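=== RUN LOG ===
request id: a7f3
mode: sequence -> structure
chains: 1
length: 74
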Amino acid sequence: MLFMDDNSWIVLNELNGEIEDLEEGIEYYAKELETNQKELKELESNPASLEKFAREKYWMVKPGEEIFLVDTKK
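=== RESULT ===
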């Protein structure tokens, strides 16, 4: 006999799949956190790297400077 209820094999299999996906997400975000913490320490300890980060990521410029963007993906 086969009974279909809230504890069926299909539901348990789906839940196990969700658990695996969530565990992979935990691993991914743990690695991202570690990377970001290293980058933050570098930015806090080195003013030159902070300036480089601001210029590259947020395109910040000093007064009177001009920025030229060159597309190198061709």
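=== NOTES ===
The mean pLDDT is 89.
The helical segments are 9-45, 47-58.
=== END ===
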